[in-house]
Design goal:
Distance between the termini: 27 Å
Radius of gyration: 33 Å
Strand order of the largest sheet: 2-3-7-4-6-5
Number of strands: 9
Shape: elongated
Order of helices and strands: HHEHEEHHEHEEHEHEHEHHHHHH
Helix content: 40-55%
Oligomer: single chain
Strand content: 15-25%
Largest sheet: 6 strands, mixed, barrel
């Protein structure tokens, strides 16, 4: 493609009377650059949001939950041993789950209470590694009445809503109380705030509270029963297979659910949203491609005599097509590379923006804007942009190659 490159390069450098064509070329480059930049930034932010959300969800909940049809089960210690011996299981811990009301001073709030085993819960959920829940047996043996009050760990936002700090005493109101002459009376018990739970997920931090599993059993009058088992697996993407192994091993009435099933609607929505945004933002590149086609058509009209002379000298239709395809691809490639550079720069800057004041109850994250550049996404964006630019060059190049040299010289 020797002389085609040379002639194509000459055509890209417009003369003074072809300033308008040059302006269209610049606008075409800018359009492609803006489209590619927008695609890279938006897809990177959405991928980062999905990855950040996934890590926060998995930090605040187990990867597999095992329960029993019919409610709580008492033989959980034996089941726990069998689960931990299953291939792919890293750790497991029992839990009790129920809804309660919390009252502190003049404020009340509903919450989801989880009774956990502090010794093993941290091995399953990373956000529970620093949970400070005293042993009820140890607290009950002390002579200090205040120290005998069981501890509770509140979500950071839940503690703010209640207006309590570490060391305050709150009342926990359970729906499972007792029967009295006046009817069913909810159980009320004092708990001392011993710490905070912070997962980075606002919904979790304003909803969850944790107490020792022994205190939960006493409060709910469950005896030695638990609600289920939280399980951590070695490979999160094999969680479903591990869940199936566990249920096959334990048989009915046990059933298990992995984290993808528990959050399937959320992650399906995020995946669909990312695909839709890719299609929508690709339209920006498509608009820029029309500018490329327009500039090439005008270039063909302005170079009619030159094309005719080239064909009279022996240039083939294929060579003429190459000249204008080359021109269009230079514009598209330059715009794509410029957009790639701007997109990477903007992603770099966005990683350093603190959006703490914008987050919280509006977004799922509470720190900085999550940005994750994935190689496959960047390559897909570049390939899509170049493909659209290439397709935009085909019609003008074909029209140029079909020019009749005799008529072009006569009427050019």
């Amino acid at each position: 493609m020797g002389y085609e490159l040379f002639i194509g390069g000459r055509y890209l450098r417009a003369k003074q009377k072809q300033t308008f064509i040059s302006l269209i070329t610049v606008l075409s480059i800018a359009g492609v650059a803006v489209g590619v930049m927008a695609l890279i930034v938006v897809i990177a932010v959405m991928a980062g949001f999905e990855a950040d959300l996934k890590s926060r969800i998995l930090g605040g909940q187990s990867q597999v939950i095992l329960k029993r049809h019919g409610g709580a089960f008492t033989e959980y210690r034996k089941v726990l041993q069998e689960v931990e011996q299953t291939e792919g299981v890293e750790a497991a811990t029992p839990f009790i789950l129920f809804q309660i009301m919390l009252r502190a001073k003049n404020k009340t709030s509903g919450a989801v209470l989880r009774g956990i085993d502090p010794k093993s819960a941290g091995r399953v959920m990373t956000t529970l590694q620093q949970v400070n829940l005293p042993d009820p047996a140890a607290a009950g043996s002390t002579r200090d009445a205040s120290a005998a009050i069981p501890g509770i760990v509140l979500g950071r936002e839940l503690a703010r809503n209640l207006g309590v700090v570490e060391g305050d005493v709150i009342y926990l109101i359970s729906p499972r109380g007792m029967l009295s002459p006046i009817g069913h009376v909810p159980a009320m018990k004092q708990f001392k705030v011993t710490g905070y739970f912070e997962s980075g997920m606002y919904d979790y931090d304003q909803t969850f509270a944790f107490i020792n599993i022994r205190d939960a059993q006493k409060l709910m009058r469950m005896g030695n029963s638990v609600t289920g088992l939280d399980i951590r697996v070695t490979n999160i993407y094999e969680a479903r297979n591990v869940a199936q192994k566990i249920t096959s091993k334990l048989k009915f009435p046990y059933w298990a659910m992995d984290w993808m099933q528990m959050n399937r609607n959320l992650f399906k929505a995020l995946k669909l949203e990312r695909r839709v945004m890719f299609i929508i933002l690709t339209l920006i590149v498509l608009v820029a491609a029309f500018n490329i086609a327009s500039s090439l058509i005008m270039m063909v009209m302005g170079k009619t005599r030159d094309i005719a002379i080239l064909k009279a000298m022996g240039a083939t239709e294929r060579s003429i097509r190459k000249i204008f395809v080359f021109n269009g691809m230079v514009i598209g490639t330059f715009g794509t590379l410029l957009g790639l550079g701007l997109g990477l720069l903007l992603c770099f800057l966005l990683k350093r923006i603190d959006i703490h004041e914008l987050a919280g109850d509006i977004y799922y994250f509470t720190t900085s804007l999550p940005v994750k550049l994935e190689f496959i996404n960047v390559i897909s964006i570049i390939a899509a942009a170049l493909l659209i630019c290439f397709l935009a060059t085909l019609y003008p190049a074909r029209q140029a190659s079909k020019l009749n040299p005799v008529e072009a010289i006569r009427y050019g």
